[in-house]
Structure prediction request, 296 residues.
Amino acid sequence: MTRHLISAGHRLHVGSRGRGPIDAALAAGAIDDGDPAFVAAHSEIVLLCVPFTPDVTRVLTDLAPGLRSGTVVVDHSTIDAAAEPGHRDLVVAAGGRYVEAPVSGGPAAARAGALAIYAGGEVADIEAVHEVLAAYSARVVHTGPTGSGQTMRLCNNLVHAAQNLAVAEAFGLAARAGLDPRALHEVVLGSTGDCTAVRQRVPVTGVVPDSPASNDWRGFPVEWMKEEMDMVLRLADSHDFPLVSTRVFRRLLDFAADAGYGDLDFSAIGRLYQESDRRTLRWCANTAATLESPAG
Prediction:
């Protein structure tokens, strides 16, 4: 994202808790301001992307004293939708404007400048930052008022979680049946089962060259995905809406963490099936046996 912004001709001031992201940004031509308040003081638009809700709250609190009147703060983090109105109020009280704009597409889309952005907030504020967002996105969708972007993102995450659960089971079953996973991948790619998880996260080493499984399981860690699924479940609970596959997926993430996969990409749930983890398979069998129909 940094490289795309600089390539588009934007002057970029940066700050981060860790030196890794800063050093990479400096190598691309960014300016290190260190403190969030200093970044805000030098910026017409502030872009924020951190892992969790408390991180966003802390960074916004730190940068608020440096905000100039009319500065637009754009939060690209994926966090609890219920927290966003409070974040907006914090920024507005400091004289700024706020757009919550979680992104989707992962590292590959970021490198290609093809992220999808779900923007919640005032239309005028989104239009004010559209040129900047276009530097690293292929699509910016105005989803509605503040909080709607996060809700849309979590619904998308729900779909992707279900995909990865199905892919883990399919390739686990295929392994048990003695099938070639590469052949299964070819079949599914050309069939109704084709989806992002099949193209990007088959949990078998060597099947998809760019997948986490083929690259030491580097990607979006299990522990981070646990938090994302917890946000989905909290959202569903707040609307008294039952989720079945998401709760199963969330439990499998616990099993993966317990098996030592917490720092690996979340597609490592597939290893539980591939390695015939007895606790996982027993739990899945018991869950399937106790599910009742709506009429029952």
Notes: Strands lie at 13-14, 31-32, 45-48, 72-75, 97-100, 103-104, 115-120, 137-144.
